[in-house]
Amino acid sequence: MRTTRTRGPADRAERRALPGDREGSYVDPMTTNAEGAHAPVVCDRVGPLMERLLRDAGLTTGMRVLDAGCGRGDVSSMVARLVGPTGLVVGIDRDAGAIEAARERMRAEGHASVELFVGDLLSARSHGAPFDAVVERRVLMYQPDGAAAVRALAECLRPGGIFAFQEADATMIPASSGATPLHDRVIRWAWQTVAREGACTSMGLLLPGLLEAAGLALEGIRAEAVVQTASHRHVTASIVRAILPRIVARGIATEAEVDVETLDARLEHELRATGQAFVSDVAISAWGRRR
Q1: Which residues partner with 290 through β-bridges?
Q2: Which whole-number Å values give the CA distances from 50 to 39, 79, 217, 223, 285, in the listed order?
Q3: CA–CA distance, 124 with 92 (Å, rounded to integer)
Q4: How many Å apart are CA 141 and CA 23, to the nearest integer?
Q5: First vs last Cα of the chain: how many Å apart?
Q6: Which of 25, 60, 118, 173 is most buried by a 10 A CB count?
Q7: Would you identify the CATH topology of the domain 14-290?
């Protein structure tokens, strides 16, 4: 698939379901059945990558943290658990509907020290800067000017403040140990859709350069992949179901081609029949401090 960047980011309310991304808490990939044996389940394999990044970057109790592009509050919830009741999480997102959903989630989860606002990244400084830390996940890929967005977020940090950014990258996927034509086709449907909506599908690899150009000191960077097998699967079919109207509207595939009602079963069958391992998602994480 050709890596592309165009103008005109997708509507924030729609794009919360990204390739490899899903709102909600992490579910352990294995459960125990009545006989005591382990049974595989389909689960979110992306959430733990962000949780690990936040811990490695140094987020801890009592910090004031900006969650840039917070959406429905998945990352805000992670951060709130780390900073505790003595800390503060400020989430901003340009989608008012997502902010309302995030507020409801914070109430349901009992996170009293979370404040959520409608706003864009370029105006983030007006929501209580300077912060001890700024975090974001898969948000820069939708900005018309990623460099300007990074500079604006850097200005929200106090000197020595922490940043923890994570972006998806489609440059190296799909990939597999052998032939997995259905999995290949499904991942391309998703990425071609967000590319036609204006996303930068190589933002992960661009991220280190943008951070350093903004004067931020990188302390760590890594790439992590979601690897699926027949017994360790990701929520691929659920993601496709969520973005199906967008896939159809952008002319990527028809509803009949996708056949979403049988998609999960067909994906499982392909991995089980072939015995292949399949890489469906790559996340690039970068963390460090403001000089």
Answers
A1: 216
A2: 25, 10, 20, 12, 8
A3: 7
A4: 17
A5: 38
A6: 173
A7: Rossmann fold (3.40.50)
